[in-house]
Amino acid sequence: MNTPRGNAPPPVPPPHVVTPPHAQDQGARRPSESAPLAPATARPAHKEYPKETATTEEEEEKPATGRKGGTHGQLAVIIDDMGSSLQEARALAGIGLPVTFSIIPGLRHDREVADFAAQSGIETMIHIPMQSKGWPQRRLEANGLLLAMDDAAIREHMGDYALRIPRALGVNNHMGSEFTEHEDKMRTVLGVLKGRGLFFVDSVTTPQTVGLRLAREMGVKAGKRNVFLDNEQDGAYIRGQLGQAVRLAKRNGAAIAICHPHPATIATLAEALPTLAGQGITLVAVSRLVR
């Protein structure tokens, strides 16, 4: 999901090109903690996709609304990595059903996508780049959060993110398998969110994340990702993962799914999301499911 900082922004891949989710990384340069927010430029190339199943923890996570064990449920679909293409945003909006855009601050079209979402009535979040276990071999946006940063630098970065995407109602982590395991760093992040009235959705890129627990302790509205829909860029796989999300939503009353604006994902969502109402599923913005 990540692109290193360079001297000139690389070209944005055309919409028909699918970037492999585990593309070889080329390294990353650590951002200056005193520098202004650096652009992330092109579509992120590396993603952290832990293979997930319906665990007991997921089944026991109580939703903000809805009743458990029924034939109906609420489902929020977060589209991560938004901000590199306005065409993708238009295609997703064209589905005509509630989704939530999570925009990486600094991508080439981040502000345009955020403005388009506001005009289209689509909820937005900030997709905050955070250090992964493989960093620096695994690339991270030049404006991402690193464990080496002190609290002041983290707060400064958080403020810069909010300036780029001012209408965002919440955030979730982009990568972050290392960062989200560190309570001291996450406490700083969540403290900023609490002060700004923003919610947190834990993308759960590591089983050892402290994000959701700490958010609860600090009084920050929060939720967590239950299913990744598009670990594999295949329509049948994506439909199967969506089916898992539907089952969890019915079992628990609600579920949160995360996916990305790849062509196969957009095409599958356009076909599948309109059928969910007939299965007893109500699509909602993710802010409806945090507590």
From TrEMBL:
Signal peptide (from-to): none
Name used for this protein in its record: Divergent polysaccharide deacetylase family protein
Species, as recorded: Oryzomonas japonica
Gene Ontology biological-process entries: carbohydrate metabolic process
Chain intervals for the UniProt region annotation (Disordered): 1-73
Coiled-coil regions, chain positions: none
Biased composition (Pro residues): 7-18
Domain of life the protein comes from: Bacteria
